[in-house]
Amino acid sequence: MMAPRQTRAAVPSRIGGLLAVPVLLAGIAGCSGSDDEPTARATPSATATETSAAPTTEAVAAPTGPIGPGCDLVFPAAADGAPVDLTAQPVSAAVGANPQLSTLTAAVGAANLVDVLNAREEVTVLAPTNAAFDALGPDALPALLGDGPRLTSLLTHHVLPGRLAPAELVGEHVTLNGDPITVAGPPEAPTIAAEGTLAGAAPATVVCGDVPTANATVYVIDQVLAPAG
């Protein structure tokens, strides 16, 4: 009867708490079993190893949620204090309901792109704020709104294929306009170089991004981007 007690003593001291129960039961079974029982009693130790490793995977999981310094301004909380939920709205409706994006909404309507954007599945929209359009000067927007082909090219340059998380947004992409765009890191603060903007004076930065709608992920930016060529 000494062999089962020796086997229990060999169990590593780190296994405690609830794991003591299967070890004790294994030892009791060994008192009446055959000489092959120690092999079966090794199973709880393997299970314990797997169980102890599980919290490590959860601990290194990537954080989720919007990025950018202006989320409280662009997407303020609802009356109950909870974040505004845009996941049930198509992207044009989500953008159109936002006072900070009213100029973009008007431009999308003028270019007849509302249905085009809403029909697109799994895209990423870079949405310039009203201030981004204002920075172009008082004559820029009327000129854009009066030039349908140029306006369409400019707006579709702000749409990328796929729902891109911040780490995926950083890199090179081909826009819905068919031209390239490069987004620099780090993922928590993506930027687009000044030469890629219409004003050309400062890089575009993310005001608030990684915001999901029904068919798109939105990144609100502080510059209007310029199509290639």
Task: Tell me the layout of helices and strands.
Layout: H1 2-9, H2 20-32, H3 37-40, H4 43-59, H5 71-74, H6 91-96, H7 102-110, H8 114-119, E1 123-128, H9 130-134, H10 140-145, H11 148-156, E2 159-161, H12 166-169, E3 171-174, E4 180-183, E5 191-192, E6 204-212, E7 216-221
Parallel strand pairs: 1-7
Antiparallel strand pairs: 1-2, 3-4, 5-6, 6-7
Helix pairs in contact: 1-2
Notes on the structure:
There is one protein chain. With 229 residues, this protein is of the alpha+beta class. It has 2 domains: 2-57; 71-221, FAS1 domain (Roll). Helices cover 40% and strands 15% of the residues. It contains 12 helices and 7 strands. A 5-stranded mixed sheet has the order 2-1-7-6-5. The chain has a two-stranded antiparallel ribbon with strand order 3-4. The model is unreliable at 1-63 (pLDDT under 50).
